[in-house]
Design brief:
The complex is a heterodimer.
Chain A (H helix, E strand, L loop, with lengths): L1 E2 L12 H9 L3 H23 L2 H22 L5 H18 L10 H8 L6 H19 L3 H11 L5 H8 L3 H19 L13
Helix pairs in contact in A: 1-2, 2-3, 2-4, 3-4, 4-8, 5-6, 6-9, 7-9, 8-9
Chain B lengths: L1 H8 L1 H5 L5 H13 L1 H15 L5 E2 L3 H62 L4 H4 L7 H6 L6 H10 L4 H4 L6 H5 L1 H15 L1 H6 L1 H13 L6 H17 L2 H10 L4 H7 L1
Chain lengths: 202, 261
């Protein structure tokens, strides 16, 4: 059920452009193919923004409905992934602002599933659950651009240039957002995280 | 100091190894020389490492659910535009048709039963028609062991009739079933009006109706003209329920829709 994001799956698929052309030519199957190509990454980003499976599924659905509406008007799309990420982030962040959507609880089971751990020690589980909650709220509390930059780099492993394209800003601005985000997360997570080697880059 | 602020500006990118090689070298050189920046970088890297990078994965059936939901949503506006007015009209027609059919059934049943009773007591209507054969009149009445089969035969004729309209749209059984009594009622009404003929040609009438219910194409022009609109209405009114499913599944036909773009 869980998957490590070890590969940079966010690179624009080489056939995005071709599929968009086919769709514009009236081939509905091309849109279906686009959907299946990008569904996983849209859902992942939605899940990391919303922290809820059903909400993330709804958001994924909404993003593709918007894509279908927007595709004929998009014209030359530089990177479809960038467009999808941008729409997904905006939609999810707006969705999270809705009243009643801030009480999604990150349960012990969620954390265990996320860690892929079979450990059932209640104390350990509670501690990890608390850590997960703090991590989640720390990311949620980041300013919009910093949060988007962190999500796209940490979970989607986009390059700085790709993040810049997604967010519509310069690479320099992305570097700045990312540094501020990591500094704030360090401040928020102080006391929850253990000590370890931090000399190596990730 | 200037170097420190520059290094801290790109600290996040350095931690993720996203800086170009020459920039990475410069930052590393500064970190080796500046303990404060080194500690800053180290603490941030430790914090970031604690944040898991794993993501949940969609199951196959969940992907399909999203896929079909999107397909349904992107087709709904088109269907709504083209069918909305038509469906409203049909629903309106169906409602008035249902009321009308209930009225007709009520009248038909009422009038159908009344003459039977009258015939059973004294057949006053049969008398004027067959006045030319006054001697045979009692014979006809005496043959009324034949009329009981007549009312019995009507339900038998009508009984198979419900199946064709109900079969296409299982979702709208109640609506599909409503106009049927209407059709039956009209037939009953006709029979009531031509009662003496039915009494005489009972066997022939039954045979004709069996043919009619068997297949509409073989039905006589008069009966098919009466039956067709009433059969069409229920099938059309029941259409919306299954249509939603069909539209979703029938994605290929949408090529026509997309080509219009």
């Amino acid at each position: 059920m869980m998957q490590m994001n070890t590969l940079k799956t966010n690179r624009p698929a080489p056939d995005d452009k071709y599929l968009i052309e086919r769709f514009m030519a009236g081939e509905q199957g091309a849109f279906d193919r686009l959907m299946s190509l990008h569904m996983d990454r849209v859902y992942r980003l939605a899940w990391h923004t919303l922290h809820d499976h059903d909400e993330a599924m709804d958001a994924t659905q909404e993003v593709f409905i918007r894509l279908h509406r927007a595709l004929p008007k998009l014209g030359e799309v530089g990177s479809l992934s960038a467009w999808l990420y941008r729409v997904c982030l905006n939609h999810c962040i707006d969705r999270k602002r809705r009243p009643g959507n801030n009480d999604v609880q990150f349960t012990d089971d969620d954390w265990n599933a996320l860690q892929g751990s079979e450990r059932l020690d209640p104390a350990w589980s509670a501690q990890q659950s608390e850590l997960a909650r703090v991590i989640r709220t720390s990311i949620d509390d980041l300013p919009r651009q910093q949060r988007a930059t962190f999500l796209l780099r940490h979970y989607e492993q986009l390059s700085l240039d790709e993040i810049a394209e997604t967010l519509g800003c310069s690479t320099g601005a992305v570097k700045c957002h990312l540094s501020r985000a990591t500094a704030k997360l360090r401040d928020r997570l102080r006391g929850y995280v253990g000590h370890g080697k931090g000399d190596e880059v990730l | 100091m200037n170097k420190c602020s520059k290094a801290r500006e790109v600290m996040g990118a350095y931690i993720y190894g996203e800086l170009p090689p020459n920039e990475m070298k410069k930052v590393r050189a500064h970190l080796d020389a500046c303990p404060a920046c080194h500690e800053e970088m180290r603490s941030q890297a430790i914090a970031v490492r604690q944040i898991p990078t794993e993501s949940p994965e969609l199951a196959g059936f969940e992907k399909e659910r999203i896929f079909w939901s999107v397909q349904g949503a992107i087709r709904q506006p088109e269907r709504g535009r083209s069918m909305g007015v038509f469906l409203k009209a049909l629903y309106g027609l169906g409602a008035t048709g249902a009321v009308a059919s209930l009225l007709v059934v009520g009248i038909a049943v009422g009038t159908h039963r009344l003459p039977q009773r009258e015939q059973a007591d004294v057949p006053p209507e049969a008398a004027p028609v067959q006045q030319s054969q006054p001697v045979q009149r009692p014979v006809v009445v005496n043959e009324t062991p034949a009329p009981p089969p007549a009312p019995v035969a009507v339900p038998q004729i009508a009984a198979p009739a419900p199946t064709p309209p109900i079969a296409p749209g299982a979702g709208g059984v109640s609506r599909a079933a409503e106009p049927l009594p209407d059709r039956q009622g009209k037939q009953n009404k006709k029979r009531i009006q031509s009662k003496p003929q039915i009494l005489q040609e009972n066997g022939q009438e039954v045979q004709q109706n069996h043919v009619e219910t068997g297949s509409d194409s073989q039905a006589e022009p008069d009966s098919s003209r009466d039956a067709k609109p009433e059969v069409d209405i229920p099938s059309a009114t029941t259409a919306p329920a299954p249509a939603g499913m069909d539209d979703v599944r029938e994605t290929p036909p949408s090529e026509g829709e997309t080509s219009s773009r």
